[in-house]
Amino acid sequence: MRTPQRGFTFIETGATLAILAIAATLAIPGFQDLLQRRHTEGVATELATDLQFLRSEAVARNQTLRASFSALPGGGSCYLLHSGAAAACRCQPDGSPSCSGDAQQIKAVPLPAGSRVSVQANVGSIVYDPRHGTSTPAATIRVTGLDGRAVHHVVNIMGRVRSCSPRAEFGGYHAC
């Protein structure tokens, strides 16, 4: 008498692998989209937190502090949190920060050309006043992903950050 064999045949294994390959191929674009959205949201959240931190740090240090925004060659961008004049700290073409005089860098966030996200502002820098906790000028800063989806941070003269997303592209953000 013959005992039945256990396990899978080569055809069954091949068919299963083919189905898994097709499912993975269909899931990859959705996964890439998810990664892009999360990366954009991550940079947007970090920027909003940095702006709020800079406001409170100016008051705590009793020192005028500044957030400066610049474009890097080849399509990248960078923002710096620092003391001193607007031109005292800059992002170098490679994204590294450079400060001159008595200016001190607090934080630098380079987003090189190969990055999935860029930051653009309608001003070169925002100054935070330590005496009143205010900022000058009011600004809009856009965090934009490669797919064109964006989160906008609107900084008012009181130094408060209001975030929104055009067409409500990201959950948790109001439409701009």
UniProtKB/TrEMBL annotation:
Question: Cross-referenced Pfam families, in alphabetical order?
Answer: GspH
Q: What InterPro entries does its record include?
A: N_methyl_site, Pilin-like, T2SS_GspH
Superkingdom is Bacteria
Q: Which GO terms describe its biological process?
A: protein secretion by the type II secretion system
Q: Which GO terms describe its cellular component?
A: plasma membrane; type II protein secretion system complex
Q: Among its keywords, does the record have Cell membrane?
A: yes
Q: Which UniProt keywords apply?
A: Cell inner membrane, Cell membrane, Membrane, Methylation, Transmembrane, Transmembrane helix
> Where does the protein end up?
Cell inner membrane
Q: Please give, as recorded in its UniProt entry, the membrane topology of this protein.
A: Single-pass membrane protein
Q: Which residues form the General secretion pathway GspH domain?
A: 44-157
Q: Which family does it belong to?
A: Belongs to the GSP H family.
Q: What is the name listed in the Swiss-Prot or TrEMBL entry for this protein?
A: Type II secretion system protein H
> What gene is this protein translated from?
fimU
